[in-house]
Prior knowledge:
Layout: H1 11-42, H2 54-64, E1 68-73, H3 78-87, H4 91-100, E2 102-107, H5 114-121, E3 129-133, E4 139-144, H6 149-170
Parallel strand pairs: 1-2
Antiparallel strand pairs: 1-3, 3-4
Helix pairs in contact: 4-6
Amino acid sequence: MTQTPPKHRSPRVLLGAIGITVVLLFALWQAASRTSSTQQTLVNAVDITWKHDFQTASQAASESNQPVLLLATADWCPPCQHLKKEVLVQPRVSQQIQTQFVPLKLDVTEPDSVATRKSDELGVQGIPTMIIFDSQMNEIDRVVGALPEDKLLAWFDKCLAKVKQSASMAR
């Protein structure tokens, strides 16, 4: 009975396997560090207390003299999910929404819901749509789509300036 000698792998194969292992470990380390920094950033985020009824938001705006930020959204809408999970959770965004606005969310997931009828009444054509109203429920501006954090904050600032300007003109 003859034995066949064991096959030896070439150094190239071993180096290739080591290289792939190093790349995979590096990728895992990068993903873990990004997750960690994202979690650290979100520690300072504020939970937004959304109203879900237009009349309740209108009354709160009138009583607090704050503008309303309306968000029309749906569970089946990928840009809406991106906006909710990636942008609105950022600390500067969530803090500004919670402190400068009366937040109102209209969930239009169900076609026959009160929220869907109200969004139709407001002329919402696509989602996500954000509309800012002054405290008397006059529309200031609207935007359709999921804006990135910096553009959303700039839009908030522009709308808040318009609200202040219209309030000073009304006096």
